C-alpha cells in the first residue's frame, strides 16, 4: 500500500494525513471485526506513532502496532497476518472468527440440532449405546420444582423424550429458572455460613485513635471467601445430542456474572467456550455455542480432550475451590486407559469431580463402557441428569462444597 | 528507528538479551507512556525485563509482588499506628490538637505504589504476577495507572512527582480484565530461539564457551519439544549451564553421563524425569551437533 513509505512535501501534508487517518480507521475497524478490543486511545496513539516516522518502516510499524493493539496471546499471534493482509496486501488464509464474534445468526442453533435428531437413534457408528434405551419415564408424584410451576409436568420427563418444540422451549425455560434459584440459594447459604470473624488490629487502632487509642469500637475482618468455581466440560458428541441443548441452557443459567465459571465443549477435541457462555442473552449464547459444537457426531475422545484440558487450561482455570463437572455418557471411542490417567491427574488438581451421565437413569444401564469404568474411581459424585428433577437434586451437593 | 537499536544494546549491556520486538515494546513504552504487560510461561525472563530496564535507566526498581488478598494497605500506604499512639500518649494533657501532627508525612508508611509515584527520578515499577491479585485490586490499579495520583483522606491528593515506567507481568493463572489489557502495551514473552538462548547463557554464565552454550541451547530446545508437564524455562537453562560449567564439562558429547545426571536442573517433576530417560537424552544429544 502506498501510504507507508511516501515522503510528502509540506503542502501535500494535509491531504496525505487525511488519507492516512482514513486508512488507519479502516484498519482499526478490521481489528475490531477480528475481535480486538480497540478503543479511541489506542487509535490516537497509533496515529501519533505513524506521524512520528514509524509509517516509513512497515516492519517496525507492524511490531509497534502489535504491542499496542493486541491484549492477549491469541491476538498477539494473529496480528501479523492481519497487518500484512491489510497494509501490505498479502493474502492470508481465511481465518475463522468464531470465538470472538457474535455474528452467528445464520448458524443452526443447538435447539435445531436437537429437534432434527430422531429420538433415540442418532448415535454415530462409533458410539456404543445400550439397546435398552426406551424405559418409560415414570410420571408419579409432584415435581419439587420451585419457581417453575408451569413446567411441573416436565420435571421427570427424560430430556430426550421431549419431542415437540413447545415442550423443548418449556424445558429450556425451566432449566434456566431452576439454575437461577440454585444460584441465589447457593450464594445465600454461603453468606449464612460465614463464621469466624477475626479482629483487625490495625483498623481498630486506627479508628480508635480519637479515643486515645483505647479500643472502643472494634473492627473485624473476615476471610474473603473464594467463590466456588465451576468448570463444566460438556460432551457434545452425537450420542449426547439429545441432552446437550438443555444442559447448555441450564449451565448458561447457573453461570452468569456472579459466579466464577469456565465452560468447555468436547467431542473429538476440546473447545473453550466461556466467552460464549458469558453472553447475557441465552439464545445468542446457544447460537454461538452451536457453532463450536459442530463436528459433533464423529465419536468422543474424552481422554484426549481431558489431556488437552489438563495440559493447556487446568493451571489457569482450576483453583483450590473448583468443581469440575463433566457431562458425558462416557462412551469413549479413543483410548480408555488414557482417560483413566487424565482423570487421575485431574482429580489431583481440583476439589471435586462431578460426572453427570444422563444415561445412568436408563433402565438396565450399567457402567460397562470402558471409558466410564476407567473414570469411575476418580469421580466424587456420579449422578444422572436426564430430567429437570435430577438436575435440581444436584443443588444440595453443590451447596455443601 | 534509532532508539530501538539503542535500547536493544543498552539491554544487552545490562545482561538482558532482548529480541527486536521487545526492544520495540520498550521504546513504545517510553514514547506512549503506557505500562507494558508481559505475559508468558513461568521462567522465560519476564521479571528480568524490569530489572534490566531499571539498570538501563540507571534508576531504582520498585517491585510489588502480587498475591491473593493484596490490599491497599500493603500496596499503597499505611499509617504508622504505633508511632501515632506513642505520640498521642506523649502529648496527653497538652493544649492544642495533635491531630495535624499524627497525620503527617512523618507517620506515613510508603508502600511500593506510593513510593513509585513520589520519586524525583522516575523509577521502574514492577507489578509482578498481577494475575494472582484479586479483581478488586486490579480495578484499583487501573485507576492509579491512568491518573497517577492517589488520595489519602487525611492528607489530601498526592500527585505523581514523576511517572514511573510500569511493567506488569502475568503467568496466566487468571484472566485479566479487558480494561487493564487495553490500558497496557502487550508483549508475549516466548521461549528464546537457540541462538538467543546461547547468547543469554554466554552473557550470564562465566566460563561458558560459545560452543558449549550453543550445545546447551540446542539440547534444551530438544527437551522442550518432548511432551513435558513442566517445560524448562530460561532460568532452568541457566542453572543447568552453571552446573555443567561447574563440573568442568567442555563438550556435551564428551560427558553424556554427567549431562544426563545434571538434567535434574531442567526437569522438575518425577513424570518428566521418567519421560526423558537415558535413551531419550542420548537421542536428543545425538541431534545436537
Could you name the key traits of this structure?
heterodimer, A: 401 residues, alpha/beta, Rossmann fold, 3 domains, six-stranded mixed beta sheet, two-stranded antiparallel sheet, 15 helices, globular, disordered N terminus, B: 289 residues, 2 domains, five-stranded parallel beta sheet
Question: Could you walk me through the main structural features you see in this protein, from its secondary elements to its overall organization?
Answer:
- The complex is a heterodimer of chains A (401) and B (289).
- Chain A has three domains: 10-87; 111-119 and 159-193 and 226-400, 3-Layer(aba) Sandwich (Rossmann fold), CATH 3.40.50.410; 196-224, no CATH class.
- Helices cover 45% and strands 9% of the residues of chain A.
- Chain A contains 15 helices and eight strands.
- Chain A is globular.
- Chain A starts with 12 loop residues before the first helix and ends with a helix.
- Residues 1-8, 93-152 and 188-196 of chain A have low confidence and may be disordered.
- In chain B, 37% of the residues are buried.
- Chain B is α/β, with parallel strands linked by helices.
- Chain B contains 15 helices and nine strands.
- Chain B has a five-stranded parallel sheet.
- Classes of the chains: A alpha/beta (401), B alpha/beta (289).
Write the layout of secondary structure elements.
The complex is a heterodimer of chains A (401) and B (289).
Chain A: H1 13-33, H2 40-51, H3 58-69, H4 73-87, H5 110-115, H6 165-193, E1 198-199, H7 201-207, E2 220-221, E3 229-235, H8 241-254, E4 260-266, E5 270-272, H9 274-277, H10 282-293, H11 302-317, E6 322-327, H12 336-349, E7 352-356, H13 370-375, E8 381-383, H14 388-392, H15 394-400
Parallel strand pairs in A: 3-4, 3-6, 6-7, 7-8
Antiparallel strand pairs in A: 1-2, 4-5
Helix pairs in contact in A: 1-2, 2-3, 3-4, 6-8, 11-12
Chain B: H1 2-13, H2 20-32, E1 36-39, H3 46-56, E2 61-65, H4 72-75, E3 77-79, H5 81-90, H6 99-102, E4 108-110, H7 112-117, E5 124-128, H8 135-147, E6 149-152, E7 156-159, E8 165-170, H9 178-183, E9 185-188, H10 194-204, H11 210-225, H12 234-246, H13 256-261, H14 270-275, H15 278-287
Parallel strand pairs in B: 1-8, 1-9, 2-5, 5-8
Antiparallel strand pairs in B: 3-4, 6-7
Amino acid at each position: 500500500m502506498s501510504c507507508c513509505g511516501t515522503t510528502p512535501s509540506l503542502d501535500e501534508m494535509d491531504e496525505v494525513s487525511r488519507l492516512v487517518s482514513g486508512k488507519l480507521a479502516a484498519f482499526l475497524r478490521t481489528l475490531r471485526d477480528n475481535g480486538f478490543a480497540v478503543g479511541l486511545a489506542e487509535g490516537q496513539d497509533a496515529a501519533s506513532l505513524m506521524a512520528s516516522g514509524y509509517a516509513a518502516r512497515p516492519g517496525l510499524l507492524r511490531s509497534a502496532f502489535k504491542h499496542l493493539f493486541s491484549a492477549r496471546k491469541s491476538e498477539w499471534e494473529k496480528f501479523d497476518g492481519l497487518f500484512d493482509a491489510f497494509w501490505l496486501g498479502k493474502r492470508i488464509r481465511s481465518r475463522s472468527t468464531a470465538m470472538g464474534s457474535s455474528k452467528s445468526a445464520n448458524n443452526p442453533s443447538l435447539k435445531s440440532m436437537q429437534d432434527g435428531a430422531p429420538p433415540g437413534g442418532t448415535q454415530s457408528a462409533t458410539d456404543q449405546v445400550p439397546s435398552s434405551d426406551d424405559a418409560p419415564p415414570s410420571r408419579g408424584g409432584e415435581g419439587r420444582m420451585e419457581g417453575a410451576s408451569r413446567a411441573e409436568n416436565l420435571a421427570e420427563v427424560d430430556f430426550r423424550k421431549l419431542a415437540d418444540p413447545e415442550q423443548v422451549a418449556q424445558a429450556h425455560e425451566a432449566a434456566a429458572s431452576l439454575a437461577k434459584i440454585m444460584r441465589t440459594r447457593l450464594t445465600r447459604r454461603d453468606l449464612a455460613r460465614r463464621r469466624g470473624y477475626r479482629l483487625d488490629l490495625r483498623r481498630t487502632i486506627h479508628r480508635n485513635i480519637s479515643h486515645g487509642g483505647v479500643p472502643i469500637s472494634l473492627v473485624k475482618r473476615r476471610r474473603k471467601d473464594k467463590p466456588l468455581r465451576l468448570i463444566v466440560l460438556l460432551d457434545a458428541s452425537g450420542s449426547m445430542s439429545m441432552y446437550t441443548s438443555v444442559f447448555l441452557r441450564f449451565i448458561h443459567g447457573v453461570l452468569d456474572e456472579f459466579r466464577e465459571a469456565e465452560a468447555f465443549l468436547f467431542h473429538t477435541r476440546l473447545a473453550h467456550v466461556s466467552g460464549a457462555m458469558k453472553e447475557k442473552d441465552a439464545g445468542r449464547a446457544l447460537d454461538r455455542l452451536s457453532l463450536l459444537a459442530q463436528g459433533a457426531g464423529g465419536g468422543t475422545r474424552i481422554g484426549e480432550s481431558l489431556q488437552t484440558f489438563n495440559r493447556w487450561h487446568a493451571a489457569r482455570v482450576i483453583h483450590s475451590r473448583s468443581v469440575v463437572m463433566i457431562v458425558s455418557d462416557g462412551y469413549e471411542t479413543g483410548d480408555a486407559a488414557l482417560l483413566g490417567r487424565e482423570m487421575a491427574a485431574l482429580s489431583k488438581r481440583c476439589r471435586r469431580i462431578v460426572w453427570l451421565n444422563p444415561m445412568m437413569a436408563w433402565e438396565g444401564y450399567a457402567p460397562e463402557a470402558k471409558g466410564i469404568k476407567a473414570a469411575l474411581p476418580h469421580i466424587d459424585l456420579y449422578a444422572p441428569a436426564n430430567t429437570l428433577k435430577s438436575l435440581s437434586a444436584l443443588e444440595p451437593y453443590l451447596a455443601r462444597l | 528507528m534509532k532508539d530501538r537499536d539503542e535500547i536493544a544494546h543498552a539491554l544487552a549491556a545490562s545482561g538482558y538479551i532482548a529480541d527486536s520486538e521487545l526492544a520495540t515494546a520498550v521504546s513504545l513504552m517510553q514514547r506512549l507512556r503506557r505500562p507494558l504487560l508481559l505475559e508468558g510461561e513461568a521462567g522465560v525472563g519476564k521479571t528480568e525485563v524490569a530489572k534490566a530496564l531499571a539498570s538501563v535507566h540507571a534508576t531504582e526498581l520498585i517491585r510489588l509482588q502480587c498475591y491473593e488478598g493484596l490490599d491497599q494497605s500493603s500496596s499503597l500506604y499505611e499509617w504508622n499506628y504505633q508511632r501515632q499512639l506513642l505520640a498521642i500518649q506523649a502529648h496527653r494533657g497538652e493544649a492544642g490538637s495533635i491531630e495535624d501532627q499524627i497525620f503527617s508525612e512523618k507517620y506515613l508508611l510508603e508502600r511500593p505504589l506510593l513510593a513509585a509515584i513520589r520519586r524525583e527520578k522516575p523509577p521502574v515499577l514492577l507489578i509482578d504476577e498481577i494475575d494472582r491479585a484479586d479483581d478488586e485490586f486490579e480495578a484499583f490499579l487501573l485507576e492509579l495507572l491512568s491518573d497517577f495520583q492517589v488520595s489519602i483522606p487525611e492528607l489530601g491528593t498526592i500527585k505523581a512527582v514523576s511517572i514511573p515506567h510500569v511493567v506488569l507481568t502475568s503467568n496466566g493463572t487468571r484472566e485479566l480484565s479487558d480494561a487493564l489489557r487495553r490500558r497496557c502495551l502487550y508483549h508475549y514473552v516466548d521461549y528464546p530461539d537457540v541462538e538467543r538462548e546461547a547468547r543469554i547463557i554466554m552473557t550470564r554464565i562465566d566460563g561458558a564457551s560459545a560452543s558449549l552454550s550453543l550445545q546447551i541451547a540446542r539440547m534444551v530446545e530438544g527437551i522442550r519439544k518432548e511432551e513435558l508437564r513442566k517445560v524448562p524455562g530460561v532460568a532452568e537453562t541457566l542453572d543447568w549451564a552453571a552446573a555443567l560449567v561447574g563440573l568442568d564439562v567442555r563438550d556435551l558429547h564428551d560427558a553424556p553421563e554427567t549431562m544426563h545426571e545434571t538434567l535434574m536442573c531442567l526437569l522438575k517433576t518425577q513424570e518428566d524425569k521418567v519421560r526423558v530417560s537415558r535413551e531419550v537424552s542420548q537421542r536428543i544429544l545425538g541431534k545436537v551437533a
